[in-house]
Amino acid sequence: MQLARHTSDELDAIRKFTVPTLANAIETFGVIPTNEGYCNSSMHCHFPHLPMLVGYAVTARLSTDQPPSEVRPGIIEPDYWRWVAAQPGPKVAVVQDIDNPPRGAMWGEWNSNVHKALGCVGMVTEGAARDLDGVRKLNFHFFSTAILPSHGYGAFIDYGGSVRVAGLVVKPGDLLVGDMHGVLLIPPEIPLKELAEVAQKIDHLEGEIFALCQSKDFSVDKLAELDRSVAERWPKPTGAERTLRTI
């Protein structure tokens, strides 16, 4: 099995934050927020009660609108399973249904149980999901752009390459986080512990605003004064490692 590029301590450092807080923190590294850095609003989190999804992408594409043929044969699934099993964890299955709209749901109890056994903590698909009641019991994250009752002509057609899910291009090994707000890609050059430190500072600064707004001593003048103070203390891009770029 390949080695993950982060330690468990580094991954744990970002788990306690929400996806929006991490998105705010990423901006302080000079990353301009664009819709290429996260899934768009067509992606839905089906189990928002679960802790935040954190994992490395294992990718595949599938088709649900027609059976495999000589022109578009299905893969040998045990080969795909062995590939997934060999990737570093924690893993997130990121799957693109090439049919638009999807004609079936490949992601239900079957593939959720299989992929959890292979070390995945959830799945993200541009495509359909089903068996939500059964999968809920697995504590397995489910993100999809559709829900359908049937698997259609579901078949995996390839794996291990770049995929596009809800506008986000994902490569094998990309680090993803997800919660009720959506799915975000963590740029590989950002140190996770430093990202967590910035996120913590952002949470603290926002907390000052929230506390004042909920206080009996609230006034517009006090809010304006605190807003200026928070803006002055808000983390800003610093250092050579925070070169302005886009994701």
Mind explaining what this structure looks like?
The protein has 247 residues and is α/β, with parallel strands linked by helices. It has 2 domains: 153 residues, Glucose Oxidase, domain 1 (3-Layer(bba) Sandwich), CATH 3.50.30.40; 46 residues. Strands 2, 3, 4, 5, 6, 7, 10 and 11 form an 8-stranded mixed beta sheet that branches. A two-stranded parallel sheet has the order 1-12. Strands 8-9 form a two-stranded antiparallel ribbon. Helix 5 links the parallel strand 5 and strand 6. The C terminus is likely disordered.
Task: Work out the number of β strands.
Answer: 12
CATH superfamily of the largest domain: Ribonuclease E inhibitor RraA/RraA-like
| Poorly predicted sequence stretches spanning 5 or more consecutive residues | 239-247
How does CATH name the architecture of the largest domain? 3-Layer(bba) Sandwich
Helix content: 25-40%
Provide tags for this entry.
247 residues; alpha/beta; Glucose Oxidase, domain 1; 2 domains; eight-stranded mixed beta sheet; two-stranded parallel sheet; 12 strands; elongated
Blueprint (SSEs and pairs):
Blueprint: H1 8-15, H2 19-27, E1 31-32, E2 44-45, E3 53-63, H3 77-86, E4 91-97, H4 109-117, E5 120-129, H5 132-136, E6 141-147, E7 155-159, E8 163-165, E9 168-170, E10 175-179, E11 182-186, H6 192-213, H7 220-233, E12 245-246
Helix pairs in contact: 1-6, 2-6, 6-7
